Amino acid sequence: MRVPVIVNQVPHPPTASRTTVPSAATTIAAVHTALPPHRYAQDDLTEPIGDLCLPPGADRAVLRRLHRSAGVRTRHLALPIERYAALGDFGQSNDAWLAAGLELGEEALTGALKKAGLGPSDVDLLVCASITGVATPSLDARLAGRMGLRPDVKRLPVFGLGCVAGAAGLARVHDYLRGHPDDTAVLLTVELCSLTLQQRDDSRANLVAGALFSDGAAALVAHGGGSGGDSGSAGLDAAGPSVVATRSHLYPDTERLLGWDIGAGGFRVVIDAGVPGVVRDHFGRHVRAFLAAHGLTTDDIGTWVCHPGGPRILSAVTDSLGLPGDALDSTRRALATVGNMSSVSVLHILQNTWECRRPEAGTWGLLMAMGPGFCSELVLLRW
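Request: output the structure for the sequence above.
Response:
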């Protein structure tokens, strides 16, 4: 599937600093996004989602206002919208997640490996993140046999990180490659958020989720500092940015801000109205401290790759960092064209930043996301 082109770049030249890319830095070799074929305009989803979530005859004013203000114009869904009413319980929704997730996961992984000039047998570590379904054997184990990964491939299925998993997964891949610099690692994120929508649940959190979230998968291929170009891959000649450093942060007493309540109906979303306030009050301070540790300021960052949590979250990020009004425009465009794909989104934005207009060599970038915990993850990049 053709991925929409999105730019996430602030138009000023890279700034010299005391920080240099260490020789053992992780190199991102490729990123590829896979989107389901069922694409809808936001206006065409509002009433069907109302039919799913609201009782007959209920007032739909709040639902319609949320859909208009979500910043989303089009979204991709795992199933045709008319099939969701037939998902009678969590088991049926989870079966649909597994079937569609394997298809999209294989498409994303195949595409990323092809871009990197590699094959399934070249993968040493596969990290697979999803928060929208569960399976044992996990998605990564099923894909290993399906795609022909080596029997000795290392696997790490991850559940529970939610929207932050794209950034946190890249950070943990970087940690692994620092200890295994000759290896190739792949991060795969698969999120089918539409399959978690709770029928006959008119809570504000469920209605917000129904207005924002969408479905997709993305895979990222990375090499350690010792890999060089010895794979003979033509794709490595056009490798992406290096991961220079990462930082994780948990915010105390915020466990109920974001996550799931898990019951007989599956995953019931928790989205507290206090999330933007926490971001506005604390996020900027933590980002500045992280950058300062590497001799940088926000003015040195030429490429912002930010998870599109929603319009209020993006405004809070902009305010907390004192960014120019257009610094996150490409993230807002991503939200508009494909919605919020949870952990997939930040990788999707990274791909489009890279493929639309590659930043100049030496440009600093910051990839960042937030998720359940409440937590944030920062990944310092250099092109």
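The first strand starts at residue 26 and ends at 34.
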